[in-house]
Design goal:
- This protein has 17 helices and 21 strands.
- The chain has a 7-stranded mixed sheet. Strands 6-7-8-3-21-12 form a 6-stranded mixed sheet, with no helix packed on it.
- The protein is elongated, with a radius of gyration of 39 Å.
Length: 646
């Protein structure tokens, strides 16, 4: 018989049909399905304003479900109590569920986000096949009503919108205590209706209370008048704090404009900048001693003939790098104190030679911060330039008093109104977290003397976030935050503003600030000149360019305008020799450091990059940074939640 005969085909088809019939129940059982044939809810609002809800769930399971779950969405300040949960079997008998670890059937457990789960089937049991289960929940909601003028509102979702299956038939029956008055068309009967997957059923009823006083289970927040007054007062105080800061910084010259670059020439530079050591100039203009100042010391020593430098390439391909080699040409005793400390750290005792790789190898286990070797000596130089004169620091007592008052009122407000127990730690945590960002930014801002407005954003943005959160709490009356809690939040936020404004106040004298602004003007002059093809610069100013962090600008100039002309000029220029007059225009600038003790690496920018690696120091093991281097709520409604299985 051929394989294609009708009899053979019939045999195969019959066999496949039999196998499908046998496998179908198993395949169907493995497909997880869940829906609700019916949910019946009864709710009663008592005289105190508590809502007592009984939910009867008829569930239909298919597949390997472990059981069901019910998520309760409770608004901020509300409370939920599960009084009882039972399973009703096919004979109508009740089986009370107990709280446990879900290892046995008819155990329930609370998860995160008020998620209630219960077990209906053990993992070793066969999967459900259109298996019905009925459960009843008895829950009580406190503070469920929202005050609204001289009345109240019940806004509650009884059939949850977050579900894994549809509700084929939903019924709700709501009753009110006689002390509650509802609109005339209110019957309390809703349904039966079908609730598709992803939809819910909410009730929104305006109510009036006919009893004496107020219902005990309703929390009342601060009045609208108080909230508006607090918002106006807070905004007024913080505006005054910021205006006072700006006015004070203006009075000491921080906002004074820089000297126009067109008024600067070589004579002005000699009188205001070049008489100070370049490393001191670099430390003064940005009020910081780090890698650029170390590089400036080395560049100056090279220009003075006390060091000789050479840049050589090491490695290949992606691993290729420039290595700085230094040779000491003088006895160490002739060096200044801070120069000698740096040389002693870079060179081994008695040696006249060192290089970047040798320094890294020597300090690979201990770490090395070359800036720390020169900082004390540079500070001594700057004290002679007026750095020691400082303005009085603002008192810390106002901030301390405001913070203590604010925290105290938050604690007292929480005691009076336990629902505020969420707002108080949130307010304190927000102030601490954003203060960690704002305070260091204000400390950094107080040392600046240029581009001040732009950098105020670093501390104003965090303060604005805190202020925005506070205003949101003040104008969101449905949060029902209490009087004392809101007052405490305002005082605490004002304390944070006062702290940040105090930290932003400059500590330096007006005279020293004026001197620093002159240095900033010189740096701006150098930066702009490095954009011209024939800049009004001299090679002997090279260490100052490094101190000002202008190495990349020099390298750009060399790539754009240097070429063979700069190389030819470098071969005849004398670094530090004062070869041309101060009025010469471009005749003494080569873009290569002027030859002399600088060799290798091409342009001055390349030399600066190589010396910058040495000046940055060596990180300690497992350290993420080099040693001191510097490079330039609650919704309006209650109820809802979710339903499903797990």
């Amino acid at each position: 018989m051929s394989p294609s005969s009708p009899t053979r085909r019939f045999t195969w088809r019959s066999l496949l049909a039999i196998l499908w019939t046998l496998a179908a129940p198993t395949a169907w059982a493995q497909e997880r399905q869940l829906y609700w044939p019916a949910i019946d809810v009864t709710a009663h609002l008592d005289s105190a304003g508590r809502l007592h809800v009984r939910e009867r769930w008829d569930m239909m399971f298919t597949g390997d479900w472990n059981g069901g779950e019910r998520g309760f969405r409770v608004a901020l300040g509300q409370d939920l109590t599960l009084e009882r949960m039972v399973r009703i079997d096919s004979l109508g008998q009740e089986h009370v569920l107990t709280e446990g670890d879900l290892s046995d059937v008819d155990q329930f457990s609370w998860g995160s986000g008020r998620m209630l789960r219960w077990r209906s089937r053990l993992p070793t049991d066969p999967p459900f096949q259109q298996t019905a289960r009925t459960y009843v929940f008895d829950v009580v909601y406190d503070n469920i009503l929202q005050p609204e003028g001289d009345g109240y509102r019940l806004d509650h979702e009884f059939a949850t919108s977050e579900g894994t299956g549809a509700i084929l038939e939903f019924r709700l029956h709501v009753t009110l205590d006689p002390l509650w008055r509802a609109p005339g068309d209110f019957t309390g009967e809703f349904g039966p209706i079908a609730v598709p997957t992803g939809e819910g059923f909410a009730v929104n009823i305006p109510l009036r209370f006919a009893g004496e006083g107020r219902p005990r289970s309703v929390i009342y927040g601060a009045s609208t008048m108080l909230r508006q007054g607090l918002a106006a007062g807070f905004l007024g105080v913080v505006a005054l704090l910021f205006i006072a800061l700006i006015a004070r910084e203006r009075s000491i010259g921080r906002f004074a404009p820089l000297l126009p670059p067109s008024t600067i020439d070589a004579a002005w530079l000699e009188g205001n900048v070049l008489h100070i050591l370049p490393e001191a100039v670099g430390a003064a203009w940005d009020d910081h001693t780090a890698g650029p100042e170390v590089a400036a010391v080395l560049a100056r020593l090279v220009s003075e003939g006390k060091l000789k430098s050479e840049v050589r390439s090491a490695g290949k391909g992606w691993f290729k790098s420039d290595v700085m080699y230094l040779e000491l040409l003088v006895d160490r005793t002739v060096l200044r104190a801070h120069e000698q400390q740096l040389i002693d750290a870079l060179f081994t005792s008695g040696s006249r030679f060192t290089d970047t790789q040798s320094v890294r190898e020597r300090y690979k286990t201990s770490g090395f911060d070359p800036a720390s070797k020169i900082k004390e000596g540079i500070d001594a130089i700057l004290r002679g330039e007026g750095k020691s004169a400082t303005s009085p620091r603002p008192s810390k007592w106002p901030t301390a008093i405001l913070v203590v008052m604010g925290v105290g009122l938050l604690i007292y407000g929480t005691i009076r109104n336990p629902a505020d127990g969420v707002m108080a730690p949130f307010a304190i945590g927000a102030c601490i977290a954003l203060g960690i960002v704002a305070v260091p930014a204000a400390v950094a801002w107080r040392t600046r003397v240029v581009r001040l407005w732009r950098h105020t954003l670093w501390f104003l943005v965090p303060l604005g976030i805190v202020s925005g959160l506070l205003l949101a709490a003040l104008f969101t009356e449905r949060l029902r935050t209490g009087d004392f809690t809101l007052i405490g939040m305002c005082i605490l936020a004002i304390g944070m503003w006062n702290c940040v404004m105090n930290q932003a106040r400059a500590r330096q004298s007006p005279e020293y600030i004026a001197k620093r602004k002159l240095l900033c003007a010189a740096r701006e002059y150098f930066r702009l000149e490095l954009k011209a093809e024939q800049p009004r610069l001299r090679d002997e100013w090279f260490p100052y360019f490094i101190a000002f962090g202008l190495g990349p600008s020099m390298d750009k100039w060399f790539r754009a305008f240097g070429g063979e002309r700069a190389t030819h000029m470098a071969s005849t220029a004398s670094f530090g020799g004062g070869g041309s007059s101060s009025s010469g225009r471009g005749s003494s600038w080569t873009g290569m450091g002027g030859g002399g003790g600088f060799s290798g690496g091409g342009s001055s920018g390349s030399w600066t990059a190589a010396v910058g690696v040495m000046a940055a120091g060596v990180s300690k093991p497992s350290s993420g940074s080099s040693g001191g281097g510097r490079s330039s709520g609650g919704g309006s409604s209650s109820g809802g939640g979710s339903r499903g299985g797990w």
